[in-house]
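Figure 2 data, in text form.
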Amino acid sequence: MSSENKKQIRKENDASISERMEASALRILAIRSHPRAELHRKLRQRSFPNDRIEALLDRLESMGYLNDAEAARSWVNRRVRTRPMGRRSMAQELKRLGLSDSIIEDTISQAYEGEAELEHARRAAEKKLKSLGGKDKLRDRLLRFLQGRGFSAQICFQAADDVLSGQKRNEEEEDGFSVESEYPSSMQKD
């Protein structure tokens, strides 16, 4: 085989690798937005050459397909909806994705502003309470669960107490008693 033919084959092979790598990256990004570091890791796992990955990521970034801040916002919104967690756990997840500290801080401060963290904790506690049923020591179990999700101690106590007092109110109402009265609702006057 002549050197001309070898160069031509190598050139075609290089183009083929680039096309496969780009197609793979676009498939990954079509599922959800990814931070640059995470997409790099996934392409490396597919055995694409590191120098070509960097060039592709630069191009995708310049075209607007790759944006770390947007990927972080998207990740946080999805996780808070499906698996509520505290600031600390969320920050750890974002760090594992390879995001910078400034992006993590900005994203978390937006997602957890005001009473949002307490609301996330309440939702997580309500969901967990359903799986615990009528077991003993519900408060302790809820507190451990919420702490494991990365909520602060203050948020854990408040959310567990809110959810348990709501459950108690619901049980009283189901028994025919209102929270305000000791008498069954059927005995109260209008």
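Caption note: The chain has three domains: 3-66, 70-113, 118-175.
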